[in-house]
Amino acid sequence: MTEFFYALASHNRARNYQHIQVVPVAGSLGADVTGVDLNRLHTAGFAELRTALLDHQVLFIREQQLSVAQLEAVTLQFGEFGREPFVQTMAEHPHVIHVLKEADEKAPFVFGGAWHTDWSFQARPPAFTLLYGADIPAFGGDTLYANLCQAYDWLSPKMQELLAGLNALHSPERGYGPAARHNDLLENMQVRYGNVDDELRAHPLITRHPETGRQVLFVNPTYTVGIEGLSAAEAQPLLSYLFNLPTAPAFTCRMRWSKGTLAIWDNRCTWHQPIADYHGARREMYRTTVVGEAPSR
User: Fold this and answer.
1) Annotated catalytic residue 116
2) Which fold has domain 9-291?
3) 120-174: per-residue pLDDT in tens?
């Protein structure tokens, strides 16, 4: 019998704000934000945005006009820039990744095209990612998000107890190690492959969100490669189960892009996956990250 997953309507309910308008998009996570100009928003407005981001885990802020420099300024409202390994950043904007797929590219492959949490192998993984849509296809290219707090809450008490003392191993080996060549299909982005030994890192498998206090299932199928102290044969069945759980439809939302939309998501408690369904259309985006804390229990 297939387990039935659900989310309550109260899980993703919006507050009332003075400076922004927030409309949830799904029962688990995600919200659209309207009625705001980020280039003119003051401190109180950004404080409301942060509150909404912590509540909904991912925000889509519609109808924005942002240059690369203005995107950087918005990013700094949320914290210091994160480190961007393995992907070449813009020459004049070293904290910005130009995410570009031209209409005439040969392969349908897209950057980051699998469920993941950004750069979870870092000592201080990103707290937030900001992604701005400068040129968006008429349809296609949606992004999926998953709620890792709800995935944790769904685990049985015995499973929560088992996982509480474990550390997961995170590595960029599959995507950026010497043998990982699938990113060569990204014709308009520069990926730097190399020795990733210094990026192998253990983080608690169950973390506590530093701002909300919620417990989080902190693993992901792209960068989590094992469990400390367990053999591969022992760890893989457990990881396979944990990788499958957050993708239950009730724990996810699907965001549709439009030109001028800025997405901000909380990497400490979400996964995301871009959908490769717009081959033959052009898509241009700009991405920054905000450095987070060392994951802890």
Assistant:
1) yes
2) Double-stranded beta-helix (3.60.130)
3) 999 999 999 999 999 999 999 999 999 999 999 999 999 999 999 999 999 999 8
